[in-house]
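Our consortium's second objective concerns turning raw sequence data into structural hypotheses that experimental partners can test. To show how far this objective has progressed, the report includes one record in full. It was chosen at random from the queue rather than selected for favorable results. The single chain below, 349 residues long, was entered without modification.
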Amino acid sequence: MPAARRARAVRVWAATGALAAAAGPVVGGLLVAASWRWVFVVNVPVGLLALSFAARVVPESRDAEAGRLPDLPGAGLLALAVGSVALGVVQAPSWGWLSLRTWGAIALATLSMAWFCRRSLQHASPIVEPALLRVRAFAWSNATALVFGVAFAGLLVNILWMQQVWHYTALRTGLGVAPGPLMVPVFAAVAQSVAHRVSVGWIAAAGCLLLGSGLALSVVLLGPDPSYAAEMLPCSIIGGAGVGLALPTILSAATTDLPPARAATGSAIVNISRQVGTVLGVSVLVALLGTPVGYRAVHGAFDDVRWALIVACALAAASAIGMTPRRAAPASTPGPLTASASAMPPPGA
């Protein structure tokens, strides 16, 4: 896809995913009402339909320069690093933050990540090409996606509040979640409409701060008695607007300065960063939430999670400033893209 259309395409893709995120909890609530097993079984027909549709609609493409397989042991090391740090964070409250097991898990994560980085520098086909990280917009977009992923995953905290504190059913919770994701395509379109006047870094930063504002508002508003329209709905709408500004912008900006041959690889890597952030965000939520007893303890634990997520939003906003691509012109326009492309070796070199 031409670079001039790539950012818009990524925003459309992200907005489509947001619509699915709005429908998913509602459908999930209906399925749970029938039987919790359907939540898992439904993925089989949906997956088969998606494969059939893709086979008919998605154009065939091949990499003429494809060589050896990617660094599969490196992928295993990355998974081990992420899994180890998640284990250490989740178990730290029961093991003890200073226990040997906690720090053993963190040490294993550190060693695994160091080994992964070394393999990436030496392997002919690494999972993450080090040359890509020399492209400023790509590097900062990955950093922002990682930290934003922590905050985004932590939004589960308000879902848990509806179910565990307000005692909503699965279906009612799904309906309560829906307005937030519905804001994403709306504000993704807003971001697209102002992108020619405002740098994408500032758009993403504004989205991160909006998400943090929604979380801060939930600290102030949410109480023990259900009051969805007055308390949860404003938080969901503000948070959803923030995600709509930030997430599609982060994902689209990541590949803008990359050569066309690296766009798909860059898109995959920034999604890896986002997913790693998601794992870390859920781990932080589990560690901070714990198993409190009594409303005062429950409220305090939920607020601890929200404040941690607000800090993550602030860090993501600061990181987002650096991810503005050096060019906004099509790929045919001479400029920094050419320099970036020439600085990178061909695949497998």
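The partners drew two points from this record. The longest helix spans residues 3-34. Residues 21 and 237 are 14 Å apart (CA to CA). Both points have been shared with the crystallography group to help prioritize constructs.
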